[in-house]
Write a structure and sequence with these properties.
Layout (H helix, E strand, L loop, with lengths): L16 H39 L6 H44 L5 H54 L16 H6 L14 H10 L1 H5 L18 H34 L15 H4 L4 H11 L10 H24 L8 H22 L1 H13 L8 H9 L5 H13 L5 H18 L9 H12 L7 H11 L16 H22 L9 H17 L6 H39 L1 H7 L11 H16 L11 H40 L13 H15 L10 H13 L9 H8 L5 H5 L7 H21 L4 H20 L2
Length: about 800
């Protein structure tokens, strides 16, 4: 190892420097040596085998053939390895040395020191690049000698059998058919035409020259590992290497340009809907240009394909692979931590990620076998492979990974009972759902091992909670009087703490207004409306409806209170019913009397109904108070309708989030056997169904059963139901099927103008059929699935009858 003469001051007098450099060089060599040797040896062996067998067709000396082949293949492999590895090794050394220095001494304090460190790493890499290249060449030479011997063995056996039969063996590279030998040989130049007795003269000198440089190399002293002197590189090879590195640098510059242009585009053109988001999967991306930046992005994307060739595809794929994981980490972080103000960083990251996937897809098209094999190896060895399910789904969708190896590795990971066992199970379930059920990217045969082990895990009873935690779990189940399960969590900010205190009191006041207990002046309807409008004014004064985050949190708390009240009332009612059944079983006479009881009470839905009434009132109040002239009434009415739809969409998103969190919490607790830690066991879909049903009736039946409401309102409900489908929330399946077939929703959606609602309902119907597909294919229907399937068949019958 050698260090440059000029080093920055902060690296001087560092006794551990030489050790860090040695470790960085070793790691860099180990990282690139295998793929470089594999590619170089494969190309060299294929070329050598075809040429040698043709040239030595008339030579009966197999040892002469073996010697010439060995000299040629070692020379070719050595030079190919040197050309391929030199620039890759230099870049890898710089990265490893940078990482080692930062890990040892921390991040540089300023930009100047950072530049000095980068320059030092570059200089150290240049000083030691010959050492690394020499090691790679030595390995390639040794591996090529072994591989050519194996590759030539079948052809040599055929030559021996032909000689024993007194025939001339014509290898396929020299025609392959003795009857066509003369015709084939006649088409070749005299210098390349195989001759009886073997090659001679200048032709033989070419093979001897392959070993001339090797034989002339001075041997290193015993016990030392000094590298061989670098030999002259063919001009064509140097040109190819430089072209590959220029293409790679051009690709990296293109990605940086796309990221910069996307940032500038969103800075001046923030997205207003899904179609205005820049995405390669949107048809509008190529059809229209939203801005000059958008046009330049399209030009950059179109310029990627010509950069990738068969020889550079593997290099591009390996370079982009790690970037995909880094982008996924940033995307997940951006999704989990919402900014205080709306940010477009997530959209930029997603666009760059799509472009990187496009690069991988193009690389695979150029060199299917090697790129797929390399990406499979890289993915299955990556430490974060089970954390990013969307990377796996995208790789499977683009055929970038071998499914057999992926299935085997995932099955092995599922068998392990380590700390990440739950994460692997969730990963496997998500991949199966997306790739096998939703998009049908693969077949059950492709994930056979994974499906079998998941079936065994599903049949295994959940592990009981540890004995040491039972006391704590029991104490957590019994909340104090008047407290809710939500109140046990510590607020994360001052706003949350204030809302946790004020929201329940405001909701109690609103419930009193809805139930009539807060009415005055004789309790007339007029006085109740006045109180309701006064309550809305109070919410505005206290800032509950101004800031977006405050409003979202306020609605979330009210929905959680409503769900908790409903669930506790349902549980209490179920206990009372059980007690009454026990009494009825003892007293037959009393049973006859109780059969004439009053209709079932809906007191458990009191809070849910109150919350839905509040939402309807707020939606109806959107746009009021803004006086407009006669000529502006039409435009004002359109703006009011947009405001109503916007608020409805926000409320549906908040309630959907509460539902998804509730379902996930219950499901996770059941899988881990920790249901005792929950305030109640099981997912209750009744309060959510009641809320959605109330909104449908209030907003879509305002003008009568035969009227068609605003299409945007129906589409908002349709999008929400699509998010809450049984494919994602199976516990909500019965309520979901009831909602999409609701007498207020389905007919009005299908009666919209120009059949605008048909595609939306078609999506819901297809989602339902996808949910039933696995059970129908296996012909194993549980009682719940059977009842749900009957409901779906009834919907189909109604559609055939009313909308043939």
């Amino acid at each position: 190892l050698r260090l440059p003469a000029q080093l920055p001051n902060f690296l001087k007098d560092k006794p551990e420097l030489i050790g860090l450099v040695a470790s960085g060089v070793d790691v860099a060599i180990a990282e690139i040596v295998e793929p470089v040797i594999e590619r170089s040896v494969m190309i060299a062996c294929t070329t050598t085998r075809e040429l040698v067998l043709k040239d030595f067709t008339g030579d009966h000396d197999d040892e002469n053939l073996k010697r010439s082949a060995r000299l040629m293949v070692q020379n070719l492999a050595s030079n190919l390895a040197m050309v391929t590895s030199k620039d890759q090794l230099r870049l890898c050394m710089v990265n490893k040395l940078n990482a080692a220095f930062v890990n040892k001494w921390g991040q540089p304090p300023d930009h100047v020191v950072t530049e000095q460190m980068n320059a030092a790493c570059e200089a150290i890499a240049v000083e030691n690049i010959d050492l690394g290249v020499a090691h790679v060449k030595k390995r390639a030479t040794e591996e090529a000698g072994r591989e050519i011997q194996k590759s030539l063995e079948p052809a040599i056996q055929e030559r021996r059998r032909a000689r024993e039969m007194g025939q001339l063996n014509i290898h396929r590279s020299a025609g392959g058919d003795p009857a066509m030998t003369q015709q084939f040989f006649a088409t070749m130049p005299d210098a390349l035409r195989p001759k009886q007795g073997g090659i001679t003269g200048q032709h033989m000198q070419v093979y001897n020259s392959f070993g001339a440089d090797t034989d002339a190399r001075p041997k290193p002293p015993v016990g030392e590992s000094a590298p061989w002197p670098l030999e002259p590189v063919p001009a064509a090879a140097v040109e190819f290497s430089m072209a590959a590195m220029r293409a790679l640098q051009a690709l990296q510059n293109t990605l940086a340009d796309i990221e910069r242009e996307a940032t500038n585009h969103y800075k001046f053109h923030p997205p207003t809907n899904m179609s205005s988001i820049l995405s390669l999967t949107n048809t509008s991306f190529t059809q229209v240009s939203q801005s000059p930046e958008h046009s330049r992005i399209k030009e950059h994307v179109c310029g990627i394909h010509p950069l990738i060739h068969e020889e550079t595809a593997l290099l591009f794929a390996k370079t982009i692979f790690e970037k995909v994981f880094n982008l996924s980490d940033k995307i997940v972080a951006a999704q989990r931590v919402p900014p205080q103000q709306p940010s477009t960083e997530l959209y930029v990251l997603m666009l760059v990620n799509e472009v990187c996937l496009f690069v991988l897809q193009t690389s695979r098209e150029k060199n299917v076998a090697m790129v797929t094999q390399e990406l499979t190896k890289l993915f299955l060895s990556h430490p974060k492979r089970w954390q990013h399910k969307y990377i796996a789904v995208n790789f499977i969708r683009l055929r970038l990974i071998h499914m057999q190896e992926f299935d085997h590795q995932l099955m092995e990971a599922l068998k392990e009972q380590g700390p990440n066992a739950r994460q692997v199970v969730e990963f496997a379930g998500s991949v199966v759902k997306r790739c096998l059920v939703d998009e049908q990217l693969v077949t059950q045969k492709d994930l056979k091992a994974t499906l079998e082990i998941l079936g065994k895990i599903a049949k295994t009873p959940p592990r009981p909670a540890p004995a040491a935690l039972e006391g704590a779990a029991q104490s957590k189940v019994e909340p104090q009087a008047g407290a809710t399960a939500r109140d046990e969590a510590q607020p994360q900010s001052g706003i949350d703490a204030e809302l946790q205190l004020t929201a329940p009191g405001l909701f109690t006041e609103w419930i009193a207004i809805c139930s009539g207990k807060g009415q005055v002046d004789g309790g007339t309807q007029h006085s109740q409306q006045q109180q309701a409008m006064a309550f809305v004014g109070k919410l505005q004064q206290q800032g509950m409806l101004k800031a977006v985050q405050v409003m979202d949190k306020f609605f979330t708390i009210l929905m959680e209170i409503s769900v908790e009240h409903c669930v506790r009332e349902l549980i209490a009612k179920a206990r009372r019913d059980e007690e009454e059944e026990e009494l009825l079983a003892e007293d037959k006479t009393k049973e006859k009397k109780t059969q004439k009881t009053e209709p079932e009470s809906t007191a458990h839905f009191l809070n849910v109904d109150a919350f839905s009434d509040l939402i309807v009132l707020l939606i109806r109040c959107c746009g009021r108070g803004q006086q407009s002239k006669t000529g502006e009434k039409e435009g004002q009415s359109a703006r009011n309708a947009q405001a109503e739809v916007a608020l409805l969409t926000k409320v549906l998103a908040v309630v959907s989030k509460v539902l998804l969190q509730d379902h996930e919490l219950q499901l996770t607790a059941q899988v881990e056997g920790e249901t005792n830690t929950l305030p109640w066991q099981g997912f209750f879909q009744q309060p959510y169904f009641r809320f959605f049903s109330n909104l449908l009736i209030a907003l879509c039946q305002a003008d009568g059963d035969d009227s068609v409401p605003n299409c945007d309102i129906l589409v908002a409900f349709s999008n929400t139901f699509n998010i809450l489908s049984p494919l994602r929330v199976p516990g909500f399946g019965f309520a979901w099927l009831e909602l999409i077939s609701h007498r207020i929703f389905m007919p009005k959606l299908l009666l919209t103008k120009q059949q605008e609602g048909w595609p939306h309902f078609k999506g819901l119907l297809v989602t339902a059929l996808k949910f039933f597909n696995p059970s129908l294919c296996s012909a194993q229907l549980t009682d719940a699935i059977r009842w749900l399937y009957r409901g779906a068949l009834k919907i189909l019958l109604v559609l055939l009858h009313d909308f043939p």
